[in-house]
Amino acid sequence: MVIAITNIGKIVSGNINKPLLDGDTIIIVDGKIASVGNKKLLSRYKVEQTVDAGGSTVIPGLIDSHVHPVLGDYSPRQKTVDYMDSSVHGGVTTMISAGEPHVPGRPKDVAGSKALAILACKAYKNFRPNGLKIHGGALILEKGLKEEDFADLAKEGVWLVGEIGLGSVNTPEEAGPMVKWAKSYGMKVAMHTGGTSIPGSSTVTAEMVMKTEPTVVSHANGGPTAVSPEEIDKLIKNTNLPLEIVQCGNIKIANYIVKKLNEKHQLDRIIIGNDSPSGSGIIPLGILRTIVQIASLNAIPAEIAIAMASGNTAKVYGLNTSMIDVGKEADLVIMDTPMGSIGQNALEAIEAGDIPGVSAVFIDGKLRVNKSRNTPPATRQVEIK
Ligand SMILES: [Zn+2]
After folding, report:
1. Distance, CA 303 to ligand 1 centroid (Å)?
2. Other residues' Cβ atoms within 10 Å of the Cβ of residue 33
3. Mind listing the pLDDT tens digit for each residue in 216-272?
4. Distance in angstroms (rounded) separating the CA atoms of residues 212 and 338
5. Residue 101 near residue 117, CB atoms below 8 Å
6. CATH says 62-284 is which class?
7. 234, 257 in Cβ contact below 8 A?
8. Residue 102 in 3-state DSSP?
9. N or C: which end of the chain has fewer CB within 10 A?
10. Residues whose beta carbons lie less than 5 angstroms from ion ligand 1
């Protein structure tokens, strides 16, 4: 299948080092991006479907780097169905599990914890609500896990370790060796940072993160309790770890992280997650809201803030998506300034503090959303021919 998206106003790449691309046309062949450039490209392909963007902006599909799924599109934490499908309407095309702690009656022994990770990993490979790519099955570290357990898990396809601190292993002394084993089998490791979020989890300091050496500092802006500016300074100065900013965290510290990393020209270290379903609820537009918050309150160009929820995260997790470049999976969002905004296009609207209007979402080149049911309406129309 050959699809051409034409008449694009702006193309946001997702690559923070070159966030805007020249051109007005994107060609998709069999679910992957084949070319980016101008109209002349059209003569080179036998186009089967044309999507006239009408001057709208195209960005990469967004990645939510912090989700707590269970199984299916249902959250027992908030007694809510359909939230994953709803997130696709907010421009999210990939979700990464930070652990499945909300499973009712979650087993806390080694065999149970492994079984849950394998089940969620395999089940979400088969279950894609509205095409959404959910990387589930993030192992929760429990006392007693041995190196051979990580080998077993890797063989079954598990490649994520959920936030350290969710399970019984919550000190660097206990977690350190497990993190090394996990990484030696190619796994990516998240670590809960900051205050205690739910009963049973624990407070994690910068010192503990440095000793444990995870892949990602999860919710560096805290859960309900903030990480202090001094702790953030330590993480920025003494590590080169990605710092995750979540919607369901502390807004003031989120802005502090952005300010400090901007001064150091290290905005490539920020990735964006929702941290939902959680006590703060379910926020289908949470990733967009966080992009808007970061861009509008810190004078960061919208295309840079978008890269924090696309290319930055794809690089950290080694995913071949969420960048507009040849060979990448064609996960794309068409958006525009919403009706009534002072912004002239989606990027100006974001910088002005408005949620843009999502007019189309493609996953693997397949149209999944035609006019978002959640965002305000886009000003310019997208026509599919
Ligand atoms: Zn957490």
Report:
1. 27
2. 23
3. 999 999 866 678 899 999 999 999 999 999 999 999 999 999 999 999 999 999 999
4. 44
5. no
6. alpha beta
7. no
8. coil
9. C
10. 163, 192, 197
Distance 207 CA to ligand 1 centre (A): 17
- Of 271, 163, 151, the C-alpha closest to 212 is 163
Q: Which amino acid is at 379?
A: T
DSSP, residue by residue, 334-382: EEEPBTT-S-SSHHHHHHTTPPPEEEEEEETTEEEEES-SSSPPBSS--
| Residue 223 alpha carbon to ligand 1 centre in Å | 6
3-state secondary structure of 180: helix
CA of 265 to the centre of ligand 1 (A): 27
Helix, strand, coil in percent for the chain, rounding step 5: 30, 25, 45
- CATH class of domain segment(s) 2-60+323-384: mainly beta
- Is pTM beyond 0.85 here? yes
Rg (CA), the chain: 20
Neighbours of 319 (CB within 10 A): 20
What pLDDT, in 10s, does the model give residues 305-350? 999 999 999 999 999 999 999 999 999 999 999 999 999 999 999 9
The model's confidence at residue 150, banded by pLDDT at 50, 70 and 90, is very high
Higher pLDDT among residues 171 and 293, named by residue:
293
Each residue's pLDDT tens digit, 18-56: 999 999 999 999 999 999 999 999 999 999 999 999 999
Same fold, 2-60+323-384 and 62-284: no
Q: What are the phi and psi torsion angles at 296 (to 5°)? A: -75, -35
Per-residue pLDDT tens digits for 283-305:
999 999 999 999 999 999 999 99
Rounded (5°) CA angle 160-164-169 = 120
pLDDT at 277 over 70: yes
Q: How far is the CA of 96 from the centre of ligand 1 (A)?
A: 13
Crossing angle of helices 251-263/286-298, nearest 10°? 60
Cα–Cα distance list, 324 to 15, 57, 148, 337 (Å): 8, 12, 39, 20
**Domains of the chain by residue range:** 2-60+323-384, 62-284
User: What is the C-alpha separation between 216 and 193, in angstroms, rounded?
Assistant: 10
